[in-house]
Amino acid sequence: xxxxxxxxxxxxxxxxxxxxxxxxxxxxxxxxxxxxxxxxxxxxxxxxxxxxxxxxxxxxxxxxxxxxxxxxxxxxxxxxxxxxxxxxxxxxxxxxxxxxxxxxxxxxxxxxxxxxxxxxxxxxxxxxxxxxxxxxxxxxxxxxxxxxxxxxxxxxxxxxxxxxxxxxxxxxxxxxxxxxxxxxxxxxxxxxxxxxxxxxxxxxxxxxxxxxxxxxxxxxxxxxxxxxxxxxxxxxxxxxxxxxxxxxxxxxxxxxxxxxxxxxxxxxxxxxxxxxxxxxxxxxxxxxxxxxxxxxxxxxxxxxxxxxxxxxxxxxxxxxxxxxxxxxxxxxxxxxxxxxxxxx
Length: 344
Known about the structure:
By secondary structure, the protein is α/β, with parallel strands linked by helices. The chain has helices at 26-31, 48-56, 66-78, 94-105, 146-149, 152-160, 175-187, 199-204, 206-212, 223-233, 239-247, 296-308, 314-328; strands at 10-13, 17-23, 39-41, 60-64, 84-87, 89-90, 109-110, 113-114, 121-128, 131-137, 163-167, 191-195, 218-222, 259-264, 267-273, 276-280. The strands form three sheets. It has a nine-stranded mixed sheet, with helices on both faces. It has a five-stranded mixed sheet with strand order 3-10-9-2-4. Strands 6-8 form a two-stranded parallel sheet. β9 (121-128) and β10 form a beta hairpin. α3 (66-78) crosses α12 (296-308). 51% of the residues are buried. The model has no long low-confidence stretch (mean pLDDT 96).
C-alpha cells in the first residue's frame, strides 16, 4: 500500500501526560528508591515528588506521553499539519488545555476522551547526569475506555487512518482497545506499529503483550527492553537472535512479514526484516552536546513514522529516526528546533 502523508493517515493511541522535567541528581533518585534510567508507574511513596519538584529549582513543563511525543515529532519533520492524530484520556483541567495547545501547535489533531473527575496525568522526568528516570502518575490517562474508541466520531478517524502507533504503556490502561486496533489493521491490511516501551511492561503485563503481538507489523524496542523480552521468553541474550524470534512470532496478517527495530543509544540500530539482520549507525554526537536523553526513543520513532507515511524506503525511515533523536537529545526534554534540517 503506497502512502502519501495525507491528512489523518497516522494515528497514535496512548497515555497523554504533562512532563515535569528537572535536573535532580543521584541523591534524589536514591531518596525515592528509583533506579537511574528506568521508567515506572508511581507508587504511593512517590507521590510527594510532584509537589516537591517545583520547589527544587527550574522545572520544564512539556507535552509528553510516549506515543504523543512521537506524533509531535512526526508532524514536525513532515512540516504538514493534521497528518498525525492522537487519542488518549485527559482531565478537564489546565494541564489538559496545555497538552491540547502544544499538540495542535505542533500540527497534531487530538481526539481526547475527557474525564472531569480525574486530573490529567503527569510524568516526573528526573535527570541525573543526562540520563532520565521516568516516574508516571497516570491520572486521567488511566481511565481511557474502549467505549470512546467505539464512538462514531472516533470510528471515522480510525477508518481514515492507515498507520497506527501504540506503545506498551497503553497495555496498563486499555489492552482491549489495543487488540481492537490490531484486528482492524489486520482485516484492512493496514499497518500496526508497536513499541515495547519499558522492561516492566514485559515483566508484568506479559499476557496482554502476548495478546497484542500477533497483530503487530513493526516492533520498536531499545536494548534493555529487548533484553528483558529475551529473558522473559527464554530466547537468550543475543539481540540478533531475540529480534529473529520476535519477528517470527505468530502473526494474524500473513500478507506482511514483521519488522523488528532495536535501538541501542549511540550503538548501531538493529533491524530484522525478511529473515535478515541489518545494522544502521546513528549520528555521532559528542557527549558534551547531550543535554538529556529524555524523548530519544520517542523521537526516533517519530522520525521513522514521518518517513513511513510517505512510503520512504526502510533505510531512509531509520535515517530520519536517527536525525530526530539526535536533535532531541541536544535539548531539554522532547522538544524540537523551529524547523527540521532533513530531507527525504
